[in-house]
Amino acid sequence: MENINFVLPEIFISLSIMFLLIVGVFKKNSSSLIYSLSVITLIISLGLIINFPGKEEIYLFNDSYKIDELSILMKIITILSGIFVLVSSYNYTKLEKIFNIEYSILILCSILGMLVMISSYDLIVFYIGLELQSLSLYVLAAFNRNNIKSSEAGLKYFVLSALSSGLLLYGCSLIYGFSGSTNFSLIAENIFSSEYGNVFGLVFILAGLAFKISAVPFHMWAPDVYEGSPTSVTLFFAIVPKVAALTVFIRFLYVPFLSLIDQWQPIIIFLALASMIFGAVAAIGQKNLKRLIAYSSIGHMGYALAGLAVGTNSGIQNSIIYICIYLIMNLGIFCCLFMMKRNNKFYDNLDDLSGLSKNHPIISLSLLILLFSLAGIPPLAGFFAKFYIFISVIEQSMYFLAIVGLVSTVVSAFYYLRVIKIIYFDPPVEQYDQTKYLGLKISLALSTILMLLYFIYPSGLINLVSKINII
Amino acid sequence: MIAHSIFFYFFSLITIVSAIMVTVSKNTVHSVFFLILGFISVSCLFIMIGAEFLGMVMLIVYVGAVAVLFLFVVMMLNVAQQGNEIFQNSRYTHLPVGLIIGLIIFFELIIVVSGWKYKPDIISSNSINFDSNLTNTHSIGMVLYTEYIHLFQLSGMILLVAMVGAIVLTFKKRSGIKRQSYIEQISREKISGVSLVNVDSYKGVKIDD
């Protein structure tokens, strides 16, 4: 029975999902109420996680569920970003007519799946969490079903993601067959690279996971899905599932597959290199801001994977720092997208940004800061994120990875700078509506200020992740 | 023992042949029927090794629900015709690439299978509590609701999400449709439903709905 205290956040979220569904069914026009109740649910579960009883490692349900520093930190990040996604996109969902009661409930469901994924210490638990998360995401991608692009995005994501889940499951079954257990620590004891089945299973699992974080060569779905889905869902896609998938990457690579490091290291290095190069090159010709963000997120995932490839604790920690900073930057960029509204219509092309600085100096300034940060220009936070990754890569003398990373940073700076040029030096388009919604303003201000002033107190984040020692 | 192996080879042969026929047969309806045949023979195999619960669940879930659903989809959408057209019109442009990748994976699988070693000591048979008096259903129930309770509940959440998702994506609120309202029907009073009209002779009554 005492186990229940440790999974209280998950239980709370699942009970609230059912409660909110019932409220939505029996109370007419309760979308707004349910939206705010879901935000409150997330805030309460955040409180439950922060006030977690006991700080040592805890194994639950026959060692299939693990709660440690890594999982607590990643759960906090996931729920916080979920809260900000809901708060900042309130106005957008209302105007785009996707303001059903199910919208926020599905977001809660996928966050529940992510929490399970983050804590999973067993192949079955991991797979169940993954399915819960991605099933909700399929529906969210196709949520605006009156829009043909949204339906296309949903279908595309569903088909490709189901395929990758199949690969992943096949890999899991091979690992189970050759090591004799689904539990991570038991797999770690019984896995040997001399048996090809283990390596084969490892490759399948990595391919499936790489699909979930859209690393090259499993990235094909990302631009279309990002462009087609409603912008609020794109924001959710761009930041929240990446945290959970990165945690699962860390868990898989450094617990059950640690003894296969010689086998997986080249794979991860290849994924990182290909994502960095592709993310930098393919984004150059894009005309749509959402597609551009999709390609840039592919590139950023490459840097996060580079941190994982080195096989040291500092590499893992720096990857986590990277993903934190990455999601704050993306939140800010999307807040600006939510503000580009004229006569109840939202605009997301690069041309619509033209001359934004004349009419909206504050939005342009925050876009400038965020884009510079994405490009990695000091002293903004994006620079430090890349800097930490490069330090841990060079410490292990993987110079090739570092050089390619630096070159692709320079290449990707081109398209970020082009956006800034469009904002500041092109002829202005018609003025956009003033935003009155406070949550959006606060989210944008918060992310911009955090990126701008990170260099004053960088040790806060570093201390937070320094407790995570996997190896 | 001989009868056992005869049945085993009989059902395995049916399984393999029907699995091949699922992919080979040109008519999609036939493929679905072969799929059902495959499921049935697999469930027979399950029953032969003493896993009667799994065999019956296989029959109920896969044959009873999934395969019949496939059949509905195939017949309703008329995929049988379209599929054939696509198959005939395409000039096999993707065939070489697919063939190469398929062959590579096939040979890799051969390496995997040939490298497989039987490990008798991975779990000692003494550690498994085996009670021959318990039925399959009973012993599955014993672990399902104790050791795997979290997975059981989470699977329930997945089904809930699937249900909500299906409703979100397909439900449309249509206007101008007269829906049945039970409460209104039941709570109708005599006063509102029946009215007494004095009819003038040779004039008739005007009824307005």
CATH class of the domain at 1-90 in chain B: Mainly Alpha
The coarse silhouette of chain B is elongated
Decide which structural class fits the backbone of chain A: mainly alpha
- Portion of residues in helices of chain B? 55-70%
Strand order of the largest sheet of chain A: 1-2
Largest interface: A-B, 38 and 28 residues
The helix/strand series of chain B, from N terminus to C terminus, equals: HHHHHHHHH
SSE string of chain A, helices as H and strands as E: HHHEEHHHHHHHHHHHHEEHHHHHH
Q: List the total number of helices of chain B.
A: 9
CATH topology category name of the domain at 1-90 in chain B: Four Helix Bundle (Hemerythrin (Met), subunit A)
Q: Count the DSSP helices of chain A.
A: 21
Oligomer: heterodimer
Number of domains of chain A: 1
What is the CATH superfamily classification of the domain at 1-90 in chain B? NADH-ubiquinone/plastoquinone oxidoreductase chain 6, subunit NuoJ
At CATH level 2, the architecture of the domain at 1-90 in chain B is Up-down Bundle
Sheet bearing the most strands of chain A, described? 2 strands, antiparallel
Average pLDDT of chain A, to the nearest integer? 88
The level of helicity of chain A is over 70%
Instruction: Kindly name the structural category of chain B.
Output: mainly alpha
Which helices and strands appear, and what pairs or packs with what?
The complex is a heterodimer of chains A (about 475) and B (about 210).
Chain A: H1 3-6, H2 8-26, H3 31-50, E1 58-60, E2 65-67, H4 69-88, H5 90-95, H6 101-119, H7 123-141, H8 148-179, H9 184-190, H10 196-212, H11 221-228, H12 231-254, H13 261-282, H14 289-309, H15 313-339, E3 341-342, E4 345-346, H16 356-359, H17 361-375, H18 381-395, H19 399-425, H20 438-453, H21 459-466
Antiparallel strand pairs in A: 1-2, 3-4
Helix pairs in contact in A: 2-3, 2-6, 3-4, 3-6, 4-6, 4-12, 4-15, 6-7, 6-12, 7-8, 7-12, 8-9, 8-10, 8-11, 10-13, 11-12, 11-14, 12-14, 12-15, 13-14, 13-19, 14-15, 14-18, 15-17, 15-18, 15-20, 15-21, 17-19, 17-20
Chain B: H1 2-24, H2 28-48, H3 52-77, H4 79-89, H5 95-114, H6 136-144, H7 149-170, H8 182-186, H9 190-193
